[in-house]
């Protein structure tokens, strides 16, 4: 009944969280914080409810939030964004991704993404009836990289859209300016729209800087940038996201969005507007603290995986680290992930779940597992202890 390609199927996150619940294993599968974001933002949401912001918000999003998004992009990246015509608030980044793909692509169009990719990409492309082409991220001694030849081959005269994700889920890669430039130049050469999913924009480590695609000259005038409050402020359940870019593209996305959710998260939009405008206050302090603590939690989990015998690639950003189980003698990560609760009391997600079924990348990364470290240190320590049993 679902799409013949299998791209629209029950999400792996639900399956793996259910496995964790059933077995009592530490859930390092689905990436969500086990501690809420700051109290003062909860209070802002409560105040918004008390103040009567409980009916449908405006279709494009409340003006305060659109202005806050525009100001954020100017402050951090020097981008000039018109809050009235170039910003659309969505039900999380997920809706922004779906509405964008549905608005801009259809049968006969090709959409290029990196592979592995966040699972909703393939599902949205399938729902649009478009064709999915991928560029492999390949592991090397200094992290995952794109091969320029793969990039050139992925683009064709049918390419309508390229959907990039940096910092990258699942690999933790922060794409370099050179890699982003190559993607933008290819898109420009094909007159394709660039969509960039930057939900982890503030979660980079070791001084690595996130470069927004929209800041590159080749990307100018053709780029839709997507982000969300979920990761930055640790309120993944609030589902407040946004997309910004050229007015005519945003208008097209808004037209589709009307018929997906119409609007969403009214009171939370107010709280997120507060969060985005409070960079010099408690919120800025919170985000800086989150980033620092995630860096040290990344180190804790990566160290534990290394000690257990995995080969890891140090994540430069996101909530995630990927680890190759081949040195431990496990060649099939899907099978390993099903047994990991029993073997080590831990749940992870096979990296192949972020790949097209049976693709060369799925095979190349067939022994790799993604683990999240956005969990309390005590939880990660319990996982670390369990992982020692694998040796
Ligand atoms: N894109 C990526 C790369 C993600 O990791 C996530 C969250 N898991 C999303 C989009 C979805 O974000 P939201 O919860 O705001 O819909
Ligand atoms: N983005 C989170 C992850 O990659 C989870 C999102 C979801 O469950 N849909 O783990």
From TrEMBL:
InterPro entries: Aminotransferase_I/II_large, Kynurenine-oxoglutarate_AT, PyrdxlP-dep_Trfase, PyrdxlP-dep_Trfase_major, PyrdxlP-dep_Trfase_small. Residues 26-386 form the Aminotransferase class I/classII large domain. It holds the Pfam family Aminotran_1_2. Transmembrane segments: none annotated. One of its GO terms (cellular component) is cytoplasm. It comes from the Bacteria. Its cofactor is pyridoxal 5'-phosphate. One of its GO terms (molecular function) is kynurenine-oxoglutarate transaminase activity. SUPFAM superfamilies: PLP-dependent transferases (SSF53383). Keywords: Aminotransferase, Pyridoxal phosphate, Transferase. Belongs to the class-I pyridoxal-phosphate-dependent aminotransferase family. PANTHER family: FI04487P. This is Succinyldiaminopimelate aminotransferase apoenzyme.
């Amino acid at each position: 009944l679902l799409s013949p390609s299998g791209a629209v199927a029950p999400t792996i996150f639900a399956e793996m969280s259910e496995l964790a619940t059933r077995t009592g294993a530490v859930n390092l599968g689905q990436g969500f914080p086990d501690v809420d974001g700051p109290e003062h933002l909860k209070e802002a949401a409560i105040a918004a409810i008390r103040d009567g912001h409980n009916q449908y918000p405006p279709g494009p999003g409340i003006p305060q939030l659109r202005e806050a998004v525009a100001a954020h992009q100017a402050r951090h990246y020097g981008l000039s964004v018109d809050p009235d015509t170039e910003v659309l608030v969505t039900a999380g980044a997920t809706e922004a991704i779906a509405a964008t793909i549905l608005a801009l692509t259809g049968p006969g169009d090709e959409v290029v993404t990196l592979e592995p990719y966040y699972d909703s990409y393939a599902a949205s492309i399938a729902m649009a009836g478009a064709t999915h082409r991928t560029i492999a991220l390949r592991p090397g001694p200094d992290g995952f990289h794109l091969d320029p030849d793969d990039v050139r081959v992925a683009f064709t005269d049918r390419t309508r859209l390229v959907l990039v994700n940096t910092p990258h889920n699942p690999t933790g890669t922060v794409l370099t300016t050179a890699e982003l430039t190559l993607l933008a130049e290819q898109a420009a050469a094909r007159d394709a729209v660039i969509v960039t999913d930057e939900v982890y924009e503030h979660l980079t480590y070791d001084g690595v800087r996130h470069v927004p695609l929209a800041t590159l000259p080749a990307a100018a005038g053709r780029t839709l940038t997507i982000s969300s409050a979920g990761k930055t402020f640790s309120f993944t359940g609030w589902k407040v996201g946004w997309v910004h870019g050229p007015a005519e593209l945003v208008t097209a996305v808004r037209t589709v969005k009307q018929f997906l959710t119409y609007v969403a998260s009214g009171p939370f939009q107010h709280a997120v507007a507060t969060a985005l405008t409070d960079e010099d206050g408690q919120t800025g302090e919170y985000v800086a603290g989150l980033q620092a603590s995630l860096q040290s939690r990344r180190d804790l989990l990566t160290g534990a995986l290394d000690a257990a015998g995995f080969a890891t690639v140090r994540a430069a950003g996101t909530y995630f680290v990927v680890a190759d189980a081949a040195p431990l003698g496990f060649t099939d990560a899907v099978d390993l992930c099903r047994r990991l609760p029993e073997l080590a009391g831990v749940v992870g997600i096979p990296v192949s779940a972020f790949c097209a079924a049976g693709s060369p990348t799925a095979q190349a990364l067939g022994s790799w597992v993604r683990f999240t470290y956005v969990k309390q240190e005590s939880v990660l320590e319990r996982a670390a202890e369990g992982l020692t049993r694998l040796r």
